[in-house]
Structure formats: structure tokens, C-alpha cells
TrEMBL record:
Residue ranges constituting the Ketopantoate reductase C-terminal domain according to the UniProt record: 172-293
Domain of life: Bacteria
Pathway named in the protein's UniProt entry: Cofactor biosynthesis; (R)-pantothenate biosynthesis; (R)-pantoate from 3-methyl-2-oxobutanoate: step 2/2
Nucleus in keyword set: no
Keywords assigned by UniProt, alphabetized: NADP, Oxidoreductase, Pantothenate biosynthesis
Chain's role: Catalyzes the NADPH-dependent reduction of ketopantoate into pantoic acid.
A GO BP entry: pantothenate biosynthetic process
Record protein name field: 2-dehydropantoate 2-reductase
Pfam family, one: ApbA_C
Length: 294
């Protein structure tokens, strides 16, 4: 069983570290072929030197499992570029924040088993050749199409070892919404106010968190998903407290003048609200503020 990882973002590099630790055969695919040594520091503060030789796209068909841990806005273009190099028996894992790319992915790869995943494992990438594991988390996964395909038992085992503890869902959309709902509060607020996650537990941010959660819950319930405002507010505060010293991915993107995933988080809430005939002024304002900062 061979695992391929697309890109060398924070989570991509974390997965390389996990593969290294369990001695899993892995290949890394990047925009251009590169050779470098990745300095990967695990959660126990032990540094590992991992030689990376990124591979040519032509060899992608040799791998059983392709994990795509890139930004939401990069997923569709990545799949378009890789489309001709993939075979229908390869399983694809979409691992990104936000929602809004699933239908495009299914249309581009109609014959491949596709798994959607969301994780709370955390990593920080200070530069292109290093990564630090900053938090242990969990992973929720579910098939979007063609479940139980070839090698599925081995693939489940590998993903459980790389991203565990894992929970598998027959319908993954609820878990994706649950993660998005938390990100919709933490990510834009930390980026706008330039604070770490833990600072959001301060009382001065409570009204904003409650406003975001109230709008998100209204959209989720109208769309047929379970949501409760009180529960969501508590989850946001719990995650903020548990990751107190971390800086959200959106904070990092804005701080480094990179494109953010706001269109696939709060922007997705606005999009789905429009479908349901709902007004979400606070989420709309957050999208506008983040776009103005970009």
C-alpha cells in the first residue's frame, strides 16, 4: 500500500512525519520536483530529519491512496491538473477547511472512491522545510462516492494510523458542518482582532461569537442538519481554550498576506443562507472584513 501526499503545507508535512513514524511508504507531489530535508518536530518536541524527493506527476498512478491536504480554494485546480494522471482504482482523500468543493470533485473524478475528511490535528509551518506538530486531535471521515472499493480495509487502517483517532460516518456532511461552524467563529475573529485562539474566551468577544453561532445554526437547521446555538457556543469556547496558544490558519494567512479560505467558511454560510432565504448580516460582514484585510 503506497500513500501519496499533495503539497507541503502544514498538514501535508505533518502527514509526512506521521508516515515516517509508522514506516509507511509515502510519496510527495509538489508543483515542481524538489529535494530537501524536512525538519519535523513531533508533539513530544523530538526533531526528525526527513529527506523529501518530490515526484513527477507521471508516477502518481503507482499510489493506492492520494491525500490532498491543501487550501479549499486550491482543491479544484489541483484535481484538474492531476485528472489525467489518476486511475479509477485510486482512493482520494479531501482534507481541508471549509465546504463548497465536493460537487466539483465528484464531477471531475466520477469513478474514483472519494473520502471527505476533517481533522483537529494541528501543525505549524514556519518555513518551507520545517513543520512543528502543535496539537493532537481527532479526524472525521466519510465516503462521498464508491464506498467499500478496492483496498478499502487497508486504506481505513492507514488513515486511522495517520489521523487517528478516527470516526467514520455514513453521511459525512454533518461532521463537515460541525467543523465549519466552529471555524466560522474562531478563524475570522482571530484574524480580524489579531489574537490567538485562547484570547477569544475573553468576555469582550462573547457577543460576536454568539451572533456568528446564531446565524450559523439557523442556516444549518434550515438545510436539514442538527445544530443548537448554546451547544455551538460552548464548542467554540472549548476549542479556543484547548488550542489557546495556537494561531488560526486564517490569522496566519492574513498575517502573511496570503489568500484566506473565508469564501469556503463564512462565505459558504452566506451562500447556503441565500438558498434558504435567510439573512446572515454578521457572517456577511466578516467575509467583507477579511477580504479587505487580504
Amino acid at each position: 500500500m503506497k500513500v501519496a501526499i499533495l503539497g507541503n503545507g502544514a498538514i501535508g508535512n505533518l502527514l509526512v512525519l506521521k508516515c515516517y513514524q509508522i514506516k509507511q511508504d509515502v510519496g510527495v507531489f509538489m508543483r515542481s520536483q524538489q529535494h530537501f530535508t524536512l525538519t519535523a518536530t513531533d508533539i513530544g518536541h523530538q526533531a526528525h530529519q526527513i529527506n523529501i524527493d518530490s515526484l513527477a506527476r507521471a508516477s502518481l498512478s503507482e499510489f493506492n491512496l492520494l491525500i490532498i491536504p491543501v487550501k479549499a480554494y486550491q482543491v479544484v485546480n489541483a484535481l484538474k491538473q492531476l485528472q489525467t494522471d489518476l486511475t479509477p482504482v485510486q482512493t482520494i482523500v479531501l482534507l481541508h477547511n471549509g465546504m463548497g468543493v465536493i460537487e466539483s470533485a465528484k464531477a471531475l473524478l466520477p469513478d474514483n472512491p472519494i473520502i471527505a475528511a476533517t481533522t483537529s490535528h494541528a501543525a505549524y509551518k514556519p518555513d518551507a522545510q520545517s513543520v512543528t506538530e502543535t496539537g493532537l486531535g481527532v479526524c472525521h471521515l466519510g465516503y462521498l462516492q464508491h464506498p467499500g472499493a478496492i483496498d478499502s480495509e487497508q486504506i481505513h487502517n492507514i488513515l486511522n494510523r495517520l489521523l487517528g483517532p478516527c470516526t467514520w460516518h455514513e453521511k459525512i456532511e454533518q461532521a463537515l458542518w460541525d467543523k465549519l461552524a466552529i471555524n466560522a467563529a474562531i478563524n475570522p475573529l482571530t484574524a480580524i482582532h489579531r489574537v490567538n485562539n485562547g484570547q477569544l474566551t475573553e468576555l469582550k468577544y462573547r457577543a460576536d461569537i454568539e451572533s456568528i453561532c446564531a446565524e450559523t445554526v439557523s442556516v444549518m437547521t434550515a438545510s436539514g442538519f442538527h445544530a443548537d446555538k448554546g451547544e455551538l457556543v460552548e464548542k467554540v469556547l472549548s476549542v479556543a481554550n484547548a488550542t489557546a496558544t495556537n494561531y488560526s490558519s486564517m490569522y496566519q494567512d492574513i498575517a502573511h498576506h496570503r489568500l484566506s479560505e473565508i469564501a469556503f467558511i463564512n462565505g459558504y454560510i452566506c451562500q447556503e443562507a441565500q438558498k434558504q432565504g435567510l439573512d446572515v448580516p454578521f457572517n456577511t460582514e466578516l467575509v467583507n472584513k477579511i477580504n479587505a484585510l487580504a
